[in-house]
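Re: the request from the purification team.
They wanted to know what the chain is likely to look like in 3D before they choose a buffer screen. I agreed to run a prediction and write the result into the notebook, where they can find it.
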Amino acid sequence: MSTDSAPGVELEIGHVLFMDVVGYSKLLINQQRELQEQLGQIVRSTECFRAAEVAGRLVRLPVGDGMALVFLHSPEAPLKCAIEIHKALKNYPHIQLRIGIHSGPINQVRDVNDQTNIAGAGINIAQRVMDCADGGHILLSKRVAEDLAQSAEWRPHLHDLGECSVKHDVSVSLVNFYDGEVGKPEPPEKVKRAQEQRAAIRVPATFRRRNVLIGAAVLLAALITLLFYQRQPLRSSSGEPIPEKSIAVLPFKNSSADKQQNAFFVDGIQDDILTALAQIGELRVISRSSVMQFRDPAAHPLREIGKLLGVAKVLEGSVRREGDRVVVNVYLIDALKDRQLWTNRYERTLADSLGLQGELATEIANELRVTLSPNEKANIQTKPTTNSDAYVVYLQANHIERNPDTLLEEYKKAEQAYLKAIELDPKFALAHARLASTCAEIFHYYEPLDSWKKKARSSAQEALRLQPNLGEAHLALGQCIYWFDQNYDSALAEFDTALRLAPNNSEIGGLIAAIKRRQGKWDEALEAYQKMSRLDPQNPSLNLFFTYTSMRRWPEAAKEAERIRTMAPASFVAKTQRGYVDFWWKGDTRPLKSILAEIPEEIDPDGAVSSCRWDAAMIERDYAAAARVLEIFKPDEFSYLNAGTTPKSFCQGCIYLAQGDAARARKFFETARSKFEAAVKESPDSAGRHANLGLVNAFMNRKDDAIREARRAVELNPESKDALDGALMSAYLALVYVRVGEKDLSFPLIERLLKTPGPVDSADYSITANDLKYRWEWDPIRNDPRFQKLIDHSTP
């Protein structure tokens, strides 16, 4: 809000209570609405609010995650109101407020809706005071505290905190209100850091009384130490040096009157700027998936954000859209020094804003002293479309597609929106490219239908015809070639071109790494995933983890699993995979069992928890515990084997077979086999489904059927074609040989697979030394001298 007043506007003193809800942005929309209604009811019920409103001496403003109340009659009113609110909130422990209070000049204006609004320094400083608070604090500016200290009622409860720096190097003098019942006695975290910094540079009085020469020597040593550390490279939270030319574009604040209706537009502006910057090779630009968790800037100090993301600079901003008018405010900040470097404001019509991302990216590059190549400059400054209606629809589609919880239904909504954008502007190359990627992803992850393949390929080709230097178009065509044709070399050519045009796009890097892994180029794949992790450091992806386990690099896998658990503490997959690492590495199932014990039995929507419980029990040969798991889990299928869900009857048969009761096991395997056969008929080219059918036949001692299906799986997906899943198919074949008595065929295959990188997962019959040593499936060869020799030579 501007502090400037137009000529002739009369200023008055307003006593401002500014509040917002901690953690509001992490709530679902319906939870936000419910919380706002509860807070509004609490505020309206306070005596101070009602009295000021009746007297016509109150202006209330909805502001983002909370509200501002401007009292026009008494400096005590905001504090009394805050106390009433805090007392009422004891019945609402889920609502955590932070409150800032200040008295200062304001002027009342009429906004576009002909409603009373407030401008001026009084309300701006109140917000800055609030920004320093944590949940539960009532902070006052020094000015209002001095007024209140004249009263014996308030003076004992006012605790001076000193100065604190807020955004853009602005300092405010703060006082904490705490009377033993409301407020918090401890200083806020921002204030603690400010106090620690002041203490670090303060020279103690005893030092001043010491010998001058000794003091000078100590100071000189301190200066040398300071200079030494200043010369050391700044490091991220992972310990890596932070490049000076690195930036993260944080989520922009939605300042629109109708926030819900314009959320997609605000996120779209941020994403467009991020995408434009990602095309600059001299910059490190952090990916969208890592920055979106910092939507609430108050939840993390900028220095912490910089270290977590591994960047020296951050771009913050706000977007307000009112009809055809767009106002964008941006701030480029040195994150590690919390210092504003550059700011700008853009007020445009929607049509005039279509090239804004290129304009901003160019200005930021100049500010960071980054040299743009002619191609980078041309690509960045190319407008995506000249049709503002098509652009708005495109942003809606992009918003739907990039939702982290996107499912098939949402993908199809995005597809229809991209088609509408293209209908409005047939030359909209970026919309064609995103449509192609969306259709390719639907085919790859959900519906392997030829109609999606055709639409994806034709859309990618049209995007390239319209704009040959569009990185997203080369990305989309590469996805088609990779997923539809399994032509790795041609797909890599497209991805390499896309990466040259957008060197900071981690999605492209991830696809390159995936192909390198399937080609058996493990070191190159690992390097590519590590690079992607630096561009997307807060994305709890398991790709790097699975690459470490495939390469049997257990210490690095354990470290990566812990990193993912820190980022996603609620992730069941991250927890259990960390437990499995100890089994593969050390043969120890205790960490896995300990992790599983912490998860309530009723939390298991797809059976993944139950499958791990069952698997851990089978490894330990606790067959009674394994049977209890299957009894508790009621559905007939759950997530265990590869290539689809696993019939529970398969696992029941395994329990009896492991105990030597082949006759009872066979009854359950018959049921499972019919389901595996149906799965093969549904997808006859699925190697994984043939492998599952071969395995159940082997457990039933149907030797010829088992070997035929397992060999068919290897034929469909050989290691020469796919070093990742191909190795898994070979592992299934090795186990089938073991179970049907073909020991001489199994041992050479097992020996080779122990030395070959390949997938290691709980649900796949992968081959590691400890899998062989402890799993019941390998019992038929356990007493063979060749088996013990393999174990001895392969134990980590």
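For the purification team: The first strand starts at residue 12 and ends at 21.
Please add any questions underneath this entry.
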